Amino acid sequence: MHIPNSMLQGSICPVTAAVSVVGITTAAYYSLKAKDKPTAANFGAITALIFAGQMMNFPIMNGTSGHLLGGVLAASLLGTPFGVLAIALVVTIQSLVFSDGGITVLGANILSMAILGAGAGGMLRSKLVVCWKSTQGKYAATGVAAWLSVIMASFAVSVELAIDGQIEFFSVVPAMVGVHALIGVGEALITVACCFLLSSHSVTTKTRGQVAVPLTAAVMVALLLSPFASGFPDGLEWIAEKYNFLHQSAPAFVSPLSNYAFPSFSNEMLSTGVAGLIGVILSFGVAWIILRIMQLPATKQ
Question: Right CATH number for 5-295 from 1.10.1760.20, 3.20.20.140, 1.10.10.10, 3.90.1150.10?
Answer without folding.
Answer: 1.10.1760.20
